[in-house]
Amino acid sequence: MAHILIVEDEQSINDLIAMNLELVGHTSTQVYEGNEALEFIKQNTYSLIILDIMLPELDGFSLMEYVPENIPVIFLTAMGNLSDRVKGLKLGADDYIVKPFETIELLARIEAVLRRTQRSLNIFSLDSTVVNLESRVVTVNGDEIELTLREYELLEILIKNRNIALSREKLLKLAWEYDYFGETRTVDVHIQKLRKKLNWENKIKTVYKMGYRLEVDQ
C-alpha cells in the first residue's frame, strides 16, 4: 500500500483518482491548489505525488522545487506539447500523463513508478520522526531511538494502516501474534511509550471506545 498526494484543481478528476487508488489498495490525500500542496509537501512524506501543472496560486513546475528527491512525481496535465513534457522531466518528474486519460493507464503508470523507485513502503517520516521500514532504524531529529521489538512492531502496524482506526484487539493480535491472550491494556501501555519516544502525542489518536489511529495529515 502506498500513500499518494493528489494535487489537482478539478474536483471531479481529483475524486476519480482518489476513488480508483482506494480500489487498488492505496490511500491518498487530496489537495486542490498550489500553496495548499506546498504545505502538505513540507510537512509530510508520500510514496508518490500526482501533480497537475496548471494550478491556482502556485503551478506544478514551481512546486517541483520543493519536492524531496526521494519522492517520485507523475505530472498530470492538459498541456501536451513536447516542450512542456521535456521541461517536466528535466525538473525531475518520473512520468507525464496528458488529459484526458484512461484510469487504467494512470493506475498502471503509478504501479510502474512505485516499482521502479522502490520507495512506496521503505521510508516513512512524520514531523521530526523518520522510520526506515527496511533497516528498522527509527530516528527523531536525526538521533536514533531505541524501541523494543513489540514497540517497533506496533509502530510498523500503525504506519502501514495510517489514517485507519484499529481496535485494541486488532493491534494486540497483529503485534503480539494470534496466540497471545493478554489484556488489551498492554496495547495502551505501548502506545503511551511510542507517543513519548517519537513526540507523537498529537499524531497517535485515541479512538473512543475502540483503539488508536495514526494521523499523517491534518
Automatic annotation (TrEMBL):
<dbReference type="InterPro" id="IPR001789">
    <property type="entry name" value="Sig_transdc_resp-reg_receiver"/>
</dbReference>
<dbReference type="GO" id="GO:0032993">
    <property type="term" value="C:protein-DNA complex"/>
</dbReference>
<dbReference type="Pfam" id="PF00486">
    <property type="entry name" value="Trans_reg_C"/>
</dbReference>
<keyword id="KW-0902">Two-component regulatory system</keyword>
<keyword id="KW-0804">Transcription</keyword>
<dbReference type="GO" id="GO:0006355">
    <property type="term" value="P:regulation of DNA-templated transcription"/>
</dbReference>
<dbReference type="GO" id="GO:0000976">
    <property type="term" value="F:transcription cis-regulatory region binding"/>
</dbReference>
<dbReference type="GO" id="GO:0000156">
    <property type="term" value="F:phosphorelay response regulator activity"/>
</dbReference>
<dbReference type="InterPro" id="IPR001867">
    <property type="entry name" value="OmpR/PhoB-type_DNA-bd"/>
</dbReference>
<keyword id="KW-0805">Transcription regulation</keyword>
<dbReference type="InterPro" id="IPR039420">
    <property type="entry name" value="WalR-like"/>
</dbReference>
<dbReference type="GO" id="GO:0005829">
    <property type="term" value="C:cytosol"/>
</dbReference>
<feature type="domain" description="OmpR/PhoB-type">
    <location>
        <begin position="121"/>
        <end position="216"/>
    </location>
</feature>
<dbReference type="InterPro" id="IPR011006">
    <property type="entry name" value="CheY-like_superfamily"/>
</dbReference>
<comment type="function">
    <text>May play the central regulatory role in sporulation. It may be an element of the effector pathway responsible for the activation of sporulation genes in response to nutritional stress. Spo0A may act in concert with spo0H (a sigma factor) to control the expression of some genes that are critical to the sporulation process.</text>
</comment>
<keyword id="KW-0238">DNA-binding</keyword>
<dbReference type="Pfam" id="PF00072">
    <property type="entry name" value="Response_reg"/>
</dbReference>
<dbReference type="InterPro" id="IPR036388">
    <property type="entry name" value="WH-like_DNA-bd_sf"/>
</dbReference>
<feature type="domain" description="Response regulatory">
    <location>
        <begin position="3"/>
        <end position="114"/>
    </location>
</feature>
<feature type="DNA-binding region" description="OmpR/PhoB-type">
    <location>
        <begin position="121"/>
        <end position="216"/>
    </location>
</feature>
<keyword id="KW-0597">Phosphoprotein</keyword>
<protein>
    <recommendedName>
        <fullName>Stage 0 sporulation protein A homolog</fullName>
    </recommendedName>
</protein>
<feature type="modified residue" description="4-aspartylphosphate">
    <location>
        <position position="52"/>
    </location>
</feature>
